[in-house]
């Protein structure tokens, strides 16, 4: 069984993190979504699929 001191430490760590949830620093937020495929390659792919 865990000791009483260990449980108290876990409760204190949980209590300190409760107010921090959902607060993400602006540097970690994704600014925009980059397209994995360029526009020219996308046009060629559409041309091949529709053209065939």
From TrEMBL:
<keyword id="KW-0472">Membrane</keyword>
<comment type="similarity">
    <text>Belongs to the RAMP4 family.</text>
</comment>
<keyword id="KW-0812">Transmembrane</keyword>
<protein>
    <recommendedName>
        <fullName>Ribosome associated membrane protein RAMP4</fullName>
    </recommendedName>
</protein>
<dbReference type="GO" id="GO:0030968">
    <property type="term" value="P:endoplasmic reticulum unfolded protein response"/>
</dbReference>
<dbReference type="GO" id="GO:0005789">
    <property type="term" value="C:endoplasmic reticulum membrane"/>
</dbReference>
<dbReference type="InterPro" id="IPR010580">
    <property type="entry name" value="ER_stress-assoc"/>
</dbReference>
<keyword id="KW-1133">Transmembrane helix</keyword>
<dbReference type="Pfam" id="PF06624">
    <property type="entry name" value="RAMP4"/>
</dbReference>
<keyword id="KW-0256">Endoplasmic reticulum</keyword>
